Amino acid sequence: MHSIGGMRWTLAFLLMTACAVDDLDAIEQSIVQKCDDPLICPGNSDLVAALGPFELNADKVTDSSRGFHIVSISHLGVDVPTFQVQGAKIHEIDANDNVFDGAGALSTIIRIHHTPSDREFDLKIVDYRVVPFYSANFAPTISGYYIQYKEVVAKDWKDICPYKDKVDAGIDGSWAVFWKGDRYDPDTGKIYASGGPPVVGTWFNISCAGEALIKMLRMHTGQAVAPFSPIERRLAVTWMFTATFCKPGTRYTHLGVPLVWSDLWEPSDAGPAEVEAIWSAQGAVCLNTPRDKIPDPLVCNPPECTDTQIANWDKLGWVMSALP
User: Fold this and answer.
1) pLDDT category, 75, cuts 50, 70, 90?
2) In the chain, which end has fewer C-beta atoms inside a 10 angstrom radius, N or C?
């Protein structure tokens, strides 16, 4: 065992709740993904794209990989011809040239069409919150929204983020973030495109609190909040939060595991901790004590971290995780 004292860490609690929503039929599970026992959801302890239409195109034409495209957007019944996601905030201009962002975006309704089933759903923004970074040294720039949805022909609204319990440092998982600048594979979590409009076009993401990519943003990493953060750093952070020690898409963690880390760009002191792993864009450079036992060492067996590696972790990876 290796423990670290007197270093600088940042603390986050990796909590996952059951993401089964019992009253969804097979098609509605495209809206909110249903997970089977043992509650290993996409993204594991930190979810990745558990929200069905995790990616949408503001062009109101192009289908996402899950078969959704935007039909229309309105605000208080007025058409919104200009809908933009700027970083991790919404910016709207309605047909009367009124501008809305932040809390002003409440009552916005985004109608989406699910091409495979030829069904339409409304997403309604009903509440707003400011989402803090893990470090208080950064002024909050992330807008969080409480979103409900229903099929257009239905009466009852349902929560699009079904995680009611605390998912991250005392924050519940009922809110979502609109953000832009990184496109990622919902199954593996791998970021495959990062940058401004020439790179990602008019695609934007909607992610629930507790998902790994929201944690990446809260760690002040990613195009939406830190445009100059290297994609290698973004990948390393994603692998850390999802405990992807080896192969993307295979994660080794479980409910309620506390995690601390030290990073290269905004460390803060959280006291002694037992080193878990050093993380690069390829995954775990080395591994001591994983959050969950790796059942098959032949599939995933990173070398143990040496004292020399731990002392020089900042030359080997972007972040080092530990178990408090």
Assistant:
1) very high
2) N
